[in-house]
Amino acid sequence: MQTDESYTAIEPRVTEPRPYMEHELLAEIFQMLPESVLADMYDLANALFYNVMQGTADRLATECPEKRREIKAALDTYQVTAEKKLDEVFNVFQQYVSQSTWKIPDDLDVQFDHHKDIDFNISDQDLHDIDQQLEDLRNKIKAQKQFKAILTHTHQKHRRDIERLDAMLERVSFLNDVPLKENVPDVNNTMLFVKEQVEYIKEAVIQVVSEDISSIPPDKRTLHLRSKFQAYMDKLLERSQQPSDP
What processes does the entry annotate via GO biological process terms (predicted)? Predict the structure, then answer.
């Protein structure tokens, strides 16, 4: 930009930047660089000025064609003076905008609504405690996942065993006809007893798997499940050995 110190005896002065005020424009929010905005404003001001000068020259030349040369000389002198003044004023405007209107303070506090009332000023000890809590939670989650995998595997194994028993029971169902032919009525009762025992095993597996054992240490949960299931099996064996009612 052009400057002319001899044009006027009173040079425009820009005071120290005033404190940042709330609701002042931050051009970056609208994805505009301040330098680009100022450059566009300067180009627009120059374009308007030159259009006005061109229109004035055309109008005067039309009204006084005999003085076209004098008009051109006078307008050229005025244009040079006006350009210098325009540059000088825009320098002041640019300095004001850069230092005041678009000034961002060093301690600008930008906070999201969902961060309100949250204290982010935490000490190193707080960070250490948080990391320790996260590590404890990771270990607990890992243990729960491992235990869930064991339960799932055990449940699937027992389910396959039960399916095999059901298939075997289906294959030997023809024995129901044998007692009728051979006059052996106890076979039917025996098959019903076997079926009853299989159902009891099913219920025992479901009860063991669905039991809440979160209070038991992870390294003792498998042993606990096995002992519970063995207790059900012992009870079933004891029940099967009791004499039936006549």
Answer: cell division; kinetochore assembly; mitotic sister chromatid segregation
